[in-house]
Amino acid sequence: xxxxxxxxxxxxxxxxxxxxxxxxxxxxxxxxxxxxxxxxxxxxxxxxxxxxxxxxxxxxxxxxxxxxxxxxxxxxxxxxxxxxxxxxxxxxxxxxxxxxxxxxxxxxxxxxxxxxxxxxxxxxxxxxxxxxxxxxxxxx
Length: 140
Fold this sequence. Notes:
Elements: E1 3-6, E2 24-28, H1 31-39, E3 44-53, H2 61-65, E4 71-79, H3 86-96, E5 116-119, H4 122-139
Organism: Clitoria ternatea (Butterfly pea)
Pfam families: PMSR
GO molecular function: peptide-methionine (S)-S-oxide reductase activity
């Protein structure tokens, strides 16, 4: 149902936000609602939408929606870890959308709107996994 994926290395990372207190996290899903949810969190400096993965260097929205590029809609979140934790951002991700809805489970058809969390460290992987399990327990 959900995916946890290691962080992708990108050439266009925003160097202004790469201090020890401002890590970034990427949460993949239909990005409009997720970006709005993160934008309201105290400690989030910046959000940016785009696409992760896929076969084209700079796909158009139309190309991604056609489902042939392998991209996923994504929200990159730049945050102050002194004010908000990675774990709380993961929890918000699961609460801000319902990945069990029928239209989001058609992974073979609508891969650009699949649910996924990218992580950078083993600790983040564990926190994301624990957050995912808590959400699954609520759904059960």
